[in-house]
Specification:
Strand order of the largest sheet: 2-1-11-10-9-6
Oligomer: single chain
Helix content: under 10%
Low-confidence stretches: 1-26
Mean pLDDT: 83
Number of domains: 1
Order of helices and strands: HHEEEEEEEEEEE
Structural class: mainly beta
Number of strands: 11
Largest sheet: 6 strands, antiparallel
Strand content: over 45%
Shape: globular
């Protein structure tokens, strides 16, 4: 699965030595804020946007990977997703392929990263000029203790290939 390079399809970047300064910012910008049941607020400015020919993966991270405080949220979306409200149910194929949350937990006296997959959820998405924003996302799943896990929040992300000149 090859990821799209930020310069793909952007002749201004390919020919920048002839045209002068580049016309895009090679960094992803974004933020995600979410309320998490029985956990601290998830507030991230570390966002990643990746796409292939079939899907988009948007990830938000908090803390340093490898630390006990590290947490991550990820959304896997169909490459052709547009503005709209999308329900999600595990096992039903739609425009939202997956929603996951990763956190560090203690199991059998050891700290491990635990992946919580959404069973049900929704995404209210706006796509404008390669900028993706969720006015609201929700998902419910089960945590490492088989307890109810609920999260709701919003995000905005501008991928590196977006140009707003």
């Amino acid at each position: 699965m090859a990821l799209h390079h930020p310069t793909y399809g952007n002749p201004a970047v390919i020919c920048q030595k002839f045209l002068g300064s580049p016309s895009f910012n090679p960094r992803t910008s974004g933020e995600l804020k979410a309320e998490v049941l029985d956990r601290a607020l998830f507030d991230s400015h570390e966002m990643t946007f990746a796409s292939s020919q079939k899907k988009i993966v948007i990830t938000a991270d908090m803390g340093d990977f490898g630390s006990i405080g590290y947490r991550s949220l990820a959304f896997t979306l169909d490459i052709n997703i547009q503005t709209g409200i999308y329900p999600f149910a595990r096992g039903n194929f739609g425009h939202v392929h997956d929603m996951t949350y990763t956190e560090c937990v203690e199991l059998n006296g050891e700290h491990v990263y635990y992946l919580i997959q959404a069973e049900i959820g929704s995404l209210q998405l706006s796509v404008v000029e390669s900028c993706y924003s969720a006015r609201l996302f929700t998902f419910d799943g089960r945590d490492h203790n088989d307890a109810t896990f609920e999260i709701c929040g919003d995000f905005i992300i501008t991928p590196p290939h977006a140009s707003f000149s």
